[in-house]
Amino acid sequence: MVHSRLRLIYVAVVGLLLSVVLTACGSAASPTATAGSTAAPASAATARPTTAAAPSTTANATAASVAGSAPAPAGATGAAKPGGPADTIKVVHVPGLFFAPLYIAIDRGFFKEQNIEISLDKAASGSEVMAFLAQGQIDVGAVGLSAATFNTLAKGFDFKVIASAGVAPQKDGPSKFEVRKALVDGGQVKTIADLKGRKVAVAGGTGSAGAYLAVKALQTAGLTGKDVQFVNLANPDMVQALANGAVDAALIGTPFSTQAIQQGAGTILVDDFAPGYSTTTFMYSGKFIKDRPDVANRFALALLKGYRAVQGQNYLSDANVQSYVKYTSSTEQVIRATPPFVYDPNMAITTESIKDQEKVYRENGWTDYSQSLDVGKLFDTSFADRAIKIVGPAG
């Protein structure tokens, strides 16, 4: 019996020593450079850039380090992977390439590195999500900003924008304002002004992020949101709605905007009507921030790695494209043909764009209030700032 116990102790000690040695070897291994990057704006806490940034050698090195999960500095908040059961985070997204960093962070295992399990559900628009987010029934919203966002903020509910999602470049943005091709070919609609009184599809209907962009397009012809009939349709359903004449125009998110053109359902009469816009964000519920701040920090760290992994040429890597297909239900052909968003590698918030959205919603009568709102209290850059301290800035 004594010999058996000694044998077990001996085996345990040897196993422990081997584990220590292997761990040390693993920590010394160099990270694999699998992700490129794009230069960041001067400050991650300022407004989002409105142009695609130029490639940066420094940023590439940083992103490569992130993709390889380089060891974090000792004692850094949220850097260490906690033991025990995984923390589940409830995330709701509106499927689209705006949220490519989220999809890549899930599929590349960045959340699992932080001992986080993502419970992912989808919604047709951000308007549907706000009540659940404000009440803390979900933790994270990957959604577009809407009039409901600002109405909820005005009522004193606690939630924060922690990062902007995809940002449109200055030219050839992925989301498009498309007119039914049959109307253009038949001469019924020659300019945007001819849409007055007609049906325009937007995800979420009146007061949605899509409605904001539609208004920006209508403003190029002197129209407002009050001059058309907005129809609430999910982005994937707009292609068929244009094809069968159910709507006359649509503000279509990527990659479905490309699909509508490829199928001959829609055509473009105006483009680049809101250069550098960003209507989509990652939001935390106040309850999530208050009750689980460490988990919120670890989520942001994993998400930052997702941003770094979609920079430059890596955006359309084979593995990334397959993730986009899975989460957006689009096709590889459409995704590769769609102009990409700019994904800020430091997760900056496009403050000026968001303030403009609040103004448009209010001026079109889509908010519950008429006086300007202090939108600044919506922003919280602390989570991105902590993550950047751990992995380093992108440039």
Q: Which features characterize this protein?
A:
395 residues, alpha/beta, D-Maltodextrin-Binding Protein, domain 2, 2 domains, five-stranded mixed beta sheet, 10 strands, disordered N terminus
Strand order of the largest sheet: 2-1-3-10-4
**What count of domains describes the coordinates?**
2
Structural class: alpha/beta
CATH topology grouping of the largest domain: D-Maltodextrin-Binding Protein, domain 2
Spell out the helices and strands N to C.
HHEHHEHEHEEHEHEHEHEEHHHHHH
Radius of gyration: 23 Å
Extended strand count:
10
CATH homologous superfamily (4th level) name of the largest domain? Periplasmic binding protein-like II
User: Largest sheet, if any?
Assistant: 5 strands, mixed
Helix fraction by DSSP (H/I, runs of at least 4) = 25-40%
Overall spatial form: globular
Q: For the residues shown, what is the average pLDDT?
A: 82
Low-confidence stretches: 1-78
CATH class placement of the largest domain? Alpha Beta
The end-to-end span amounts to 63 Å
Which helices and strands occur, and which strands form pairs?
Blueprint: H1 2-28, H2 57-67, E1 87-93, H3 100-107, H4 110-113, E2 116-122, H5 130-134, E3 140-144, H6 147-154, E4 159-164, E5 176-180, H7 181-185, E6 199-202, H8 209-218, E7 229-232, H9 235-243, E8 249-252, H10 256-262, E9 266-268, E10 280-285, H11 286-291, H12 293-308, H13 318-328, H14 332-337, H15 351-363, H16 382-391
